[in-house]
What we know:
This protein is an alpha/beta fold. The chain is built from 16 helices and 22 strands. The strands form 4 sheets. It has a 9-stranded mixed β-sheet, with helices on both faces. Strand 21 and strand 22 form a beta hairpin. Helix 6 runs parallel beside helix 8 and helix 14 runs parallel beside helix 15. The longest helix is centred in the first third of the chain and has 17 residues. It is elongated, with a radius of gyration of 28 Å. The two termini are about 40 Å apart.
Amino acid sequence: MTGSDGIERIPTGINGFDQIALGGLPAKRSTLVTGTTGSGKTLFAMEFLARGVQTLDEPGVFVTFEEAPADIRTNIASLGFPIKEWEAAGKWAFVDASADMSHEAPTIGAYDLGALTARIGHAVRRIGARRVALDSIGAVLTNLNNVGVIRHELYRIVSALNLLGTTTVVTAERPEEYDGVSRFGVEEFVLDNVIILRNVLRQERRRRTIEIVKFRGTNHRTGEWLFTIGPREGIVIMPLAFLRPRDRASTDRVSSGNEGLDAMCGGGFFRDAIVLLTGPTGTGKTLTSLFFAAAAVEAGERCLLQTFDETHEQLGRNAASWGLDLEAMESSGLLHVVSEYPEVASPEEHFLRIRRVIEEFHPTRVAIDTLSALERIVSSRALLDFVIALGAVLRHNEITTLLTSAPTGRVTPTVTPAIAMEVASLTDVTILLRYVEARGEIQRGIAVLQSRGSAHDHSIRQFEIDDSGMHIGEPMRGLSNVLSTPYPVTGGLPHDNPATGDAPQNLWNSRKPGADSDG
Length: 519
């Protein structure tokens, strides 16, 4: 494809990268991919070639300086790329310089890359290659005796490849994540384009990002973009890999599993809705998730229930206390439960696992309880990327989704949970659960703050939880009509209004429920 600037682009096929690159790598030019150990350089180079063969039938040559071809075939096998078959069909060729490098003695004086350039050129012409990957050029540059020679020899090999009309990816090491671009300091000036992969340790966890530093003569998206590496998916850049426009919005309704809540939401949730339910511990988030799943099973629909707070056994016990048979629902084949703690994987890995289940199980509903548990292991920005990517997958597949979130503290109405504040603008329905002290006892209240495209109940209603589930009652009278103050941030329970004896003011969100033009 040709961009708006007139420069032809070659799609890489790497999940999400072509969105950053505005179509792909500039054609018939060389691109430096640099990074520290474990950042994904070799995988980027391999995927660039493999996706080209797989999706565009473009042959490729892989020049390896450090790993033997047999090792590369093994390493990439999990991604489903049949390298041996492509080699036999003349779609893939190796230029193995790894054996040469392992026997190469330290060189004093001149070192000429002319022989290597000739070997690469021969392989390109033999299979009609459109793509070339060199991994990693630093292994051979260390044999050169000064920076001037390094720059000259690197220019010779890149120029030869450009004359052959190939689009080339060259990987190179860098010693630090945020100090310089390359090891020798000249590679980024010789090659037309520069991409940096980072693998930064933050909060005791690795976080990978990708950044396009330059595309000579053409445009690209700027900044660092989060990515992960999946054993089946390869490199996945989040959330761009999953954002895509939808053709339509559903007008069908599905039940939440609670008649009272359905009525508050105008007759249930739209089939493609993403619902955020937020409230402190004990207000009924897990209960609502279980009845949401039970409603799917009762309707003959598949549901994925992902819990981050409880074990499978705890979830089954809780379900039984409300008259739900979790084991029977699973045995029906309509409910799939995944129970794991956030600490077992990164948010990106959790996302890929959920996406695989969606692709294999094909649920029409998904419930995730709770998103806020993931805040223990990740920054708000990374968690927001997780939700954006997840939302894109769910909307594309028209899956009704219930997300739950909890603020800090059990009873005290503290600040809104961080993730809820970030996610609320991405959801279609926002439901708030709350503890309220009124007339000397603690009560529970529920409000629908927003329901896009639908009329909804604007009142704050009292609800109770017993051994048969949640029961939503009458509106709670006496609450403030001007709810302009955010949640209190000081400790202690709110007190009754001394003048009326009714429930306290300012318990709800910073806007009056139902006051927005969301319907």
